[in-house]
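We treat protein structure as text, and this decision shapes the records that our systems exchange. The tokens are whole numbers drawn from a learned vocabulary of local backbone shapes. Below, we set out a record of this kind in full and without editing:
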Amino acid sequence: MSKKHYRGSCACKRITFEADIDFSKGTHKCNCTSCWKRRWWTVKVEPADFKVLTGEDGFDPSGRFCATCGVATFRHVPVFDWNPTPYVSLSVATLDDLAPTELLEAEVTYYDGLADDWWSKPAEVRHL
């Protein structure tokens, strides 16, 4: 598979964006408290393949979700000691034109953030 163009938004459409995404590289789910409570199922997008169209000013002060409807759409992940290349962590649920079959075909990498064992798969993932 190769990159495909998608459009996405929060629930109220205040924040809209577009991205070129290669789902053959997989998606990501974590069981840490934050990801579990937000149901954060993500795909990594290269910063050059991502563009905010509207609502750049529509985020809450933390910059994590829409200040109007509360939907977490994406976050920019900078370089860290564990992450040598910046990327955009994009919630797959916010992609308006993603067919469920495309998502179901994508591999999922799981992270055991709840146990601070980020590079291991949790024993149970059916709920994620």
About this structure: The chain has two helices and eight strands.
